[in-house]
Amino acid sequence: GPSKEIYFPQKHYPGILGESDFTYMNSLKITIRKELFNHMFYHFVLTYSNWETGNVCFSESYESLSEGMQMAFWKIGGAPAQHRTDRLSAAVNKDCNREEFTVRYNTLLRHYDVTGISNNPNSGNENGDVEQSHNGFKNAMDQALMMRGSRDFESRQEYELFAANLMAKRNSGREQKFKEEVSMLKRLPAYKLSDKKIIILKVGKSSTINVFRNTYSVNSRLIGEQIEVRASSEYLEVWYGQKLIETLPRLRGEAKSAINYRHIVDWLMRKPGAFENYKHRDDLFPTTTFRITYDLLKEKYPESGNKKYIAILNLTTKETENDVERILKLLLEQNIEPLHENVVKRMLVHDAKTVRIDPVISEVKLSAYDCMLSCGSV
């Protein structure tokens, strides 16, 4: 018969090679407060000792690669002579480009004095150590979750601590080789390299910006102004005039939008007719309760339903979103129209019921101290 593919075991040397890759964790069905937590895991492995580390991420972007790689280097206390990835677009240019690695990834390698290596096309097995670690880590995670009795966590921080403890447990059997390897690693530079991408752009007439093919709203006072966006793996910082204006969660994927009603509701109050067919209208329902409220108002007041809903939305900028939602739920349960005036009335009643308790401090009688002093100590 025909010959079969042969795999050639490689000999590894301490301090020479580290490997990076990303793996999807969705198959483990992790939840945060009962909501599915779809995410990835950046994984770094020293091939001699198989010492591993990693962190939660949401894409294979350069920002995620840089953040995870630097976090790994500083955690182990040094950098290997070489670093291998598969053909990540965040690190490796397309074949038509003369340079193998992207400018940003090359800068990162130079900062740590590390030589970059990438797999040959369609040769994921060349990154075999980290690929095996993916499988081992996810299997161990699955077993640990079954032992725990629940895949639900109270917070992302709790889940990340659980994953870090599991990884430390897996590393406990590799300490001897790891000690050999640490002594051979390169010294770290004096500081980490910023993994943020700087983007200069102009705010459009709709009070929005487009970053990585997603749309975000900003304060309407910035319309027509040039701003600086500093993009990290999970957040976008909006800077204007050397001042941080706000921080926005970075959207995952493309062709999505994140419109904050607080940025635009004042102008919707002046132009309520624009709400009906607003391109990003769905972003203006903070919770399901607000959406139900809108549908009820629109059904009963076809002509003025938009205006009535916007008035409620505007109220959340003066009160709090949670308070307004709580009153809306109460009105809906009691079959009372969720109108702006009814919400305000209920809020006034709630405030009136709030009792202010002033502490009563009795008058201090100094005669008691005179007695103590005159009687002397016992």
Concise account of the structure shown:
By secondary structure, the chain is of the alpha/beta class.
Structural class: alpha/beta
- Alpha-carbon distance between the termini? 106 Å
Strand percentage lies at 15-25%
So how many helices?
11
Helix coverage percent of residues? Answer: 25-40%
Shape: elongated
Major β-sheet, in short?
Answer: 5 strands, mixed
Give helix and strand order, one letter per element, not per position: EEEEEHEHEHEHHEEEEEEEHHHHHH
Instruction: Determine the mean pLDDT.
Output: 88
| Unreliably modeled segments | none
Compute the gyration radius: what is it?
29 Å
List the strand order in the largest sheet.
Answer: 5-4-1-6-7
DSSP E strands, number? 15
Task: Please give a handful of descriptors for the protein shown.
378 residues, four-stranded antiparallel β-sheet, 11 helices, 15 strands, 19% strand
Note down, in words, how this protein is organized.
It is a single chain. Helices cover 37% and strands 19% of the residues. The protein is built from eleven helices and 15 strands. It has helices at 62-76, 103-111, 128-148, 156-171, 175-182, 261-270, 288-300, 305-315, 321-333, 340-353, 367-375; strands spanning 17-24, 31-32, 35-36, 40-46, 52-57, 82-85, 115-118, 152-153, 197-202, 208-211, 214-217, 226-231, 235-240, 243-249, 257-258. The strands form four sheets. The protein has a five-stranded mixed beta sheet, sandwiched between helices. A hairpin with a 5-residue loop joins strand 4 and strand 5 (52-57). The model has no long low-confidence stretch (mean pLDDT 88).
